[in-house]
Amino acid sequence: MSEDGRNYTLHCVENGEQVEENYTLMCPHGHKGLLRAKYRAKQLTVGPEENIFRFKDWLPVSTTFESRAGPVAFRSEGLSKELGLSNLWIGFTGYYPERGAYAVSGSFKELEALPTYARLQDFSDDSVVIASAGNTARAFAEIGNQIGKRCVIVVPEKAADGMTVTEDNGQATLLSVKGDYADAIAVADRIAAMDGYVPEGGARNIARRDGMGTVMLEGAVRIGRLPDHYFQGVGSGTGGIAAWEAAMRLVDDGRFGSKLPRLELSQNEPFTPMKRAWDARRREILPEDLGHDGAVFEVYADVLTNRKPPYSMAGGVFDAMYATDGRFHSATNAEAKEAEKLWNSIENACPNPAASVALASLIKAVDEGLVDRDSCIFLNMTGGGLERAREDHVMDKVPVRATVEKDVSDEEIRELLA
Ligand SMILES: *Cc1c(COP(=O)(O)O)cnc(C)c1O
Predict the structure, then answer these.
(1) Which of 129, 234, 353, 417 is the S-S candidate for 192 at Cβ 3.0 to 4.6 Å?
(2) Measured between alpha carbons, how far is 392 from 212 in angstroms, rounded to an integer?
(3) DSSP code per residue over 135-157
(4) Ligand 1 proximity of 324 Cβ (cutoff 6 Å)
(5) 354 lines ligand 1 (CB under 6 A)
(6) Number of the ligand 1 atom closest to the C-alpha atom of 212
(7) Which of 270, 232, 229, 219 minimizes the C-alpha distance to 360?
(8) pLDDT band with cut points at 50, 70 and 90 for residue 203
């Protein structure tokens, strides 16, 4: 432990310099690259906790919370057989009790929410602000209500319906904005800049990345080594960065092998901006990489439609791909649905479409001979089982606190949130 009692220090990836940790999201010296945690424990000790906090050695937290959400890794005999793979391992985050998976909001965003609340608690009582109607918002609302932490969720009006949690304790304040996503994000940014609020930080938040990285940790601990390949469906690619960072720590640990897993990231046709940029080995995403107008509305896995992923900056997706000799894949809607059908014929928790994209890409990569059938493959099924979670729990609807105009005044917002 350091003098401040923390199990880690914070560093700018551009020059390695240590920076002050105060739930810091940006390098204070103006560098655009990511910050990264350096943990005091070089070797990982897995704790007794039955949730994500068994990896607290390598999470930027000093507090732990009660929640059942944690990373899960297992072998699927049926899927291995079906695909003809001898060393396939599955990471699964979502709701799938037979496999020990209890992330009731249905995705690995719960692994980001738990350490984010814990990291923030070390510095302030501020509320986290989230602009999303999807898995991120549902995860922060669910976990916030489980552990008694406040958050503010800002959504466009048409998406305000259908935010559910297992037990509503009033911790999540839902604001709906008359406008589109860009308008909701603009309002959220204004709230996050007010006293008493902080942004969740996205890929810039080490707690979010290292929380997602616990899937790789769980995999390596179960397998007994680092896998050769890591498959994941990506929109922002933050999970890919997180897997790379976790793998670097496991290499430094010394007990899991010395070779970084190859990142095998996939996107859903026709929206594949990172694949296009990476295939051209470009560090920049160009406007044409976004495809035709409306491409984002055509994909099955809408959680994979990030227009501004953390791709170019130091420590981002490009660097993760470069360091791991990574490859980008893509799957069509039809291929993802076909993969989903196969999974559902073997396993008992329906995947989130983004996870089906990853599975479809694995199937194609095997068919095309891009991966050896006997190599150690880790497939990160990033979400699933939401329908089952809704069958097993009486869900509460998170009420909309207010519907506001996009040019609502700060004063009015403060009153509404008070
Ligand atoms: C957010 C999300 C993803 C994409 O993750 P990134 O690594 O941030 O691109 C994939 N699958 C599910 C289920 C998600 O919720």
Answers:
(1) 129
(2) 25
(3) HHHHHHHHHHHHHT--EEEEEEG
(4) no
(5) yes
(6) 7
(7) 232
(8) very high
Place of tokens 């690619």: 237
Q: How far is the CA of 210 from the centre of ligand 1 (A)?
A: 14
Question: Ligand 1 pocket, 305 CB below 6 A?
Answer: no
Give the 3-state secondary structure of residue 4. coil
- C-alpha 340 to ligand 1 mean position (Å): 16
Q: Which atom of ligand 1 is nearest to the CA of 235?
A: 9
Q: In this structure, what token pair is assigned to residue 148?
A: 């008694």
pLDDT band at 2 (very low <50, low <70, confident <90, very high): low
Q: Which residue in 366, 308, 312 sits closest to 335, CA to CA? A: 366
Residue 262 has pLDDT above 70, yes or no: yes
User: Which string of DSSP letters, residue by residue, matches 357-411?
Assistant: HHHHHHHHHHHTTSS-TTS-EEEEE-BB-HHHHHHHS-PEEPPEEEEEETT--HH
pLDDT in tens, 75-134: 999 999 999 999 999 999 999 999 999 999 999 999 999 999 999 999 999 999 999 878
Q: How large is the average pLDDT for residues 372-387?
A: 97
What is the rounded CA–CA span in Å between residue 179 and residue 195?
25
Q: Is 239 in the pocket of ligand 1 (CB under 6 A)?
A: yes
Q: How far is the CA of 271 from the centre of ligand 1 (A)?
A: 15
Q: Give the contacts of 363 (CB within 8 A, at least 6 positions apart).
A: 83, 335, 339, 342
Q: What is the DSSP letter of 178?
A: E
Residue 16 φ/ψ region, left for φ over 0, alpha for ψ in the -120 to 50 degree band, beta for the rest: left
pLDDT at 161: 83
In this prediction, residue 3 has a pLDDT band, given cuts at 50, 70 and 90, of low
Going from the Cα of 5 to the center of ligand 1, the distance in angstroms, rounded, reads: 32
Alpha carbon of 108 to ligand 1 centroid (Å): 7
pTM, full prediction? 0.97
pLDDT reading at 181 higher than 90: no
CB 339 within 8 A of CB 356: yes
- Contact of 16 with 318, CB cutoff 8 Å: no
Read off the tokens for 84: 């003809």
Residue with the nearest Cα to atom 2 of ligand 1? 303
Q: What average pLDDT is seen over the chain?
A: 96
